[in-house]
Amino acid sequence: MLTLAPEVEVLARFGRALADPIRCQLLLALRDAPAHPADLADRIGVSRSRLSNHLACLRDCGLVVAVPDGRRTRYELVDERLGHALDVLRTVVVAVAADRTCPDADEKGCC
Description:
- This protein is mainly α.
- The chain has one domain: Arc Repressor Mutant, subunit A (Orthogonal Bundle).
- 58% of the residues lie in helices and 11% in strands.
- It contains 5 helices and 2 strands, in the order ααααββα.
- A two-stranded antiparallel sheet has the order 1-2.
- Helix 2 packs across helix 5 and helix 3 crosses helix 4.
- The chain is globular.
- The model has no long low-confidence stretch (mean pLDDT 87).
- This is ArsR family transcriptional regulator.
- One of its GO terms (molecular function) is cadmium ion sensor activity.
- One of its GO terms (biological process) is response to lead ion.
- Pfam families: HTH_5 (PF01022).
């Protein structure tokens, strides 16, 4: 079995998290501000159960954390630098290849 350097594993995990449009929307929404799952589901337009699966994936990938908020749970990015990284990545990709599509854009599994 191939052993990857820790940096490569982290980037691959990040890439798998970004491979799904719903997870991308979640990360971008949480970049703006922490939010409760019900609010995120409404904002993104998905069912709460589907959203829950994607939040679990992002938690397992180490990108978001669940923070107790009274009787509810609030989600936020694990580190504010992740929001900055998403902004940079988004603008670089748009600047470099705005007219391109990924030939392998079918649904991928989670992290």
